[in-house]
Fold these 4 entries.
Entry 1:
Amino acid sequence: MTRLVIGLCLMLLSACILSLHAGLTFFDPATVISALAGGEGTDALIVTTLRLPRTLIGVCTGAALGLSGLLMQSVTRNPLAEPGLLGVNAGAALFVTLGATVLGFSGLAGIGTAAMLGAVATTALVFLLSVSARGADNPATTLLAGVTVAALLASFTQTLLLIDETALETLLFWLSGSFADRALNLLFLGLPLLVAGCAGSFFFASSLDALRLDDASARTVGVNVMFVRIAALAFAALLAAGAVAMAGPVLFLGLAAPHLARRLMGDTLPSTRALIVLSMLTGALIAVVADILARIVVAPGEAPISAVLALVGVPLLVHLLRRRKAVSL
């Protein structure tokens, strides 16, 4: 386990270093080091104001979505669960669209704040619907409420974008998900939620281990199943909200990272604490590598990060799942 974590950390560090070098113009190490040391000039400006922020935001977004996906899959015992099923992406998109069309938001800070508020508000609505249906202790009910709310909010968003074509042009790149042109101050939105989600996940790790069994078995060892399930889903939503606020809706990452983390453990049944660390590292690594590819594959343009994740990640995940017919949660 220790060697695996060290190996992933080294791979992530290497990917981050490559991210500072790679792009439309590939910089040599001397240029990057000079820029980070406070150098001046166009090249230094590109490194410090464009590539460094997008790399850090990619790491935080990937880690947050990887952990969010792990929590959802653990609580629901559903290997296909991912943050979007709680309506987080749809709620964020609606609030961002409302902010752009009604309130005139245009800066990334305003868009990020609207996205975070929309994600949190939508999650609260999903939980209220689940509780009103007396299904708070049933993950299937919560997921059904999330899918329903997401579909409803997505239709509202599409209607608003059709009415205001200017907003569509402004928000199209954000709605597709990207780490490009992100300012470092967006980390102040997402990083506190990542820290809170990580702390909460470790706090409930032993209870989540018990939830791998059926609910009755978890109760026999003293686990308050309903409380743990709601708390874990709430932390999953907060993590996803922070990620959406920083990068927009990034698809597939929350689904793939936990599966890859389990696969890296081989036939060993890992503890939830181990999976938390591995899911965050694999999520961050996938995000940074995908961001590098997004700059290269359609140069001099840039591909949406979700498109790259789908093209690269889906075949990989299918290959892993075919080799391992059953994935233990």
Entry 2:
Amino acid sequence: MTGYGKINLLGMLAMPAVATFAAVIMFGPRVDTMVTVFCLNIVPMLIGGLFTGLLLRGAGKAGGAGRGIALWPTLIPAAIGIVWYLWDALLPAELDPGRVHIAGPQYLVMIAILSGVVAWVGCRLVRSTRAG
């Protein structure tokens, strides 16, 4: 596994782990809550990780052009999710404090898909400018 593959895997696992940690801060160490939050948040990261894996494979065939851009579908949703969950754990809403744990993964799926498309276009541009 390359260094970029390790970063991809770290991003895929870090965000659900931080979301689970934030749920423990908010609701206490309940096993059912921790498993649910982790499973809900691994889905967007698997989608982003799939995009990243495919883009990294293409970047490897193209001599490594665009590898940094290829990490965007994993790292952008992971960074947004980590900040979002920690912010809500430290400063919870007075009404319905756990709403982000249900709504968050839906938004993160959209962010992963959007950043995957943008990264694909970016990788294509980088490869075409290197080839030409």
Entry 3:
Amino acid sequence: MNVEVTKKHDRGDLQYTWLSCKENKMNFRIFILFLSHHVIFITSKIINQNVERSIDLSTQVVRETVKITAEDTEGIPFNAYNAVFHEDLAQHVSFVSAKHTSKKLAMRKMSAGSTNFIITFPEAAPSHVFYIEVIYTSQIKPYPEEIKQADKQFVRYTGPMYFYSAYKTRFQKTQVKLATSNIISYTQVKPYAVSSNKIKYGPFEDIPGHSKELMTVHYENQTPFMSVNRLERTIQVSHWGNIAVEENIYLTHTGAKLKGSFSRYEFQKDGRSGQASVKSYKTVLPASAFGVYYRDTNGNISTSNMNVMKESVELELRPRFPLFGGWKTQYILGYNLPSFEYLFNSDDDYVLRMRVIDHIFDDMIVDEAVVKIILPEGCASIQLIPPYSIRREADTLSYTYLDTFGRPTIVFSKHNMVENHMSDLELKYKFPKILLLQEPILIITFIFIIFLFTVIFKRLDFSIAVHPHKE
């Protein structure tokens, strides 16, 4: 085999090389990547032999699942696939994953800010069947943008008509699932069929790579459109058996804005009034949560119901007023957890395993989450292992009762999060167990000083009268 290096690039931990190969009168090009010390091969003759798309538009988030049968037209084995997103959609992508049957496949961006992902397979083969799941946010828009209290909410979705790929697609089918069967309009590209709340497109043949044609669907969607503008989550770890969690949540109804004034009378009289409004929603907490409290700026909110399940604690939250489009609310939710379920140790080495975020409401969107983890005083050699990319802020110190030099506080943030981001983080640190005696010793010392001061104070004479026995 004759091999000729035609292009070579080096970008940090990502190196890739184009090789031209000639053997047995067969000309082909292979894309070789040296990614974190692993060699992967992407041939230039890859095509999508068959693509089956399923797009779920029944809620406020867009869930797209794509089944891909990729193969090399010349039978050359490959163990990597280049998945690419259109530049206009990249900002809406919240979560991406790939799997081969039931096994998750590794995905990695070509570079920071890139819209290209490299999917690697366990073994090289001339053909691979795998799935890509993509979740988009803020891609479904209310249309019209304003409605009256008794009106229905209609929304409009605009997205790619064909699977956007770097490779040619031989055959493709697309199924779009809507919230209701009330469809105002939709893109009509033959062949297509409509059945109840589903639109089926295809099969289409010989679609070139990087196809940018768009589809638009205008339909009724009364599901709650809510976004957490900012989530401030504080996790305070204690080695005395408790982990305290508190969340400060800023919430906005992002559906069609309310036109005109709100009528409480009409809202309670007619059950069809304000169908797109949010009257209540369900938050799911860990099964071991206790000491739950829920309050806003006016104080404790009693309009909440807690149901203790076997695997979770369901908390139904009801704001002081129903939320219509453009309306906002802010509240604090707190609870405690037993540390033995989340904190593990071996001698002076500790590991904390907890979710980055918890379930706030179904089909949630979190625009920005700021997580603060407060460790006990004296922790050192702190190592944070997040389940996905985050923005790490500078570590700080927090002070509370009986602290002397402050508690190490780890702060990080992430934008555009959904339910799929409810994964566990790992926080490793060292803590000398002798420091567990620090606070008890401080308390004992403080009590001893008060006792000693009291004894001395009792024995001192501060009177100005002359006592007979002193004359």
Entry 4:
Amino acid sequence: MIFKRFAELEAKGNSVLYSYWSNEILSDERLISLISKMPQSQPKPNLFFASVQWLALQKKHELFQVFMHPEAANLEESFRLLKQLCSEYENELIQLFHTRLVQTNEINRASYLYPIFAEIYQSIKKPLTLIEIGTSAGILLGVDLFNYEITEGNNTKILGDSSSDITIRSINNGQPLNISNELVIQNRIGIDLNIIQLEHEDDYRWMQSLIWPEHKERKALLEKIKDVNINCSKTLVEGDFLEIIPNYLEIRNDDSQIVIFHTHVANQFSNELKESLLTMIRQLSRNVPLYHVYNNMYDTNLHVDLIKQGSIINLKELKNTDGHGKYFSWN
């Protein structure tokens, strides 16, 4: 079952609470029945736990204290409270399953996106147009607005905007980042089926609910980044990226370099949609070269491709990249 895999591969070492709950859910028929009512397209553990966290806050349920202080929780008692909330508010949970999406917009992923975008910019010396698929609130479109402290052995590489109030820390376990601190972003386009507006309280609370309870630094960072994101000049568009991207390229009136990127989004794509995405990129590249930065298409590695005249050239592949941006291995 997917919750067993989630407990072993994702929650273990990251969330004692979610790891314990996931293992307990495996033998609870009522919860299994409730979870079966989720859309197939969504990552079920993430959607389930976010919905429970959201509802516990909304209802001021006793379980919310567990989310606030997971380190002090009695695990057996916490699971009893989880079952109680699910039983009491089953219909409202089901409604959340079908009206909310897993849109984590993990800020720390910028720690490896910034050097990738900077390397592209420095290789071509042209401003970039970033187009993000599955943009959520568009936080990652502002990668140049943050300060970065990247630990490399005994050294720390400083990148980004040193005057920023937002500092993102990560560990580079690979080769040193031999790039200069130059990046010019001319346009920022974010596409999603459901755009998150952080200035809307419901949307902001949902984004907080998607963050695991033990990850207090991530929760604090999201709160801090809220104003920076709202003031970042960008265009967020709801709809089908297969239509929006070609339309944008037709009407754009500058010579900036197009970079299409998506992280931890393609795992929600069908094989047919993945092929449609690649077909679209190949077709568009016959008119203008494109960069494609992505993971979870066919493996979990982070890929950087250059597409020219329909041909795909793999420029970089980063392995052992943490989904929450805590570490990566540069090459």
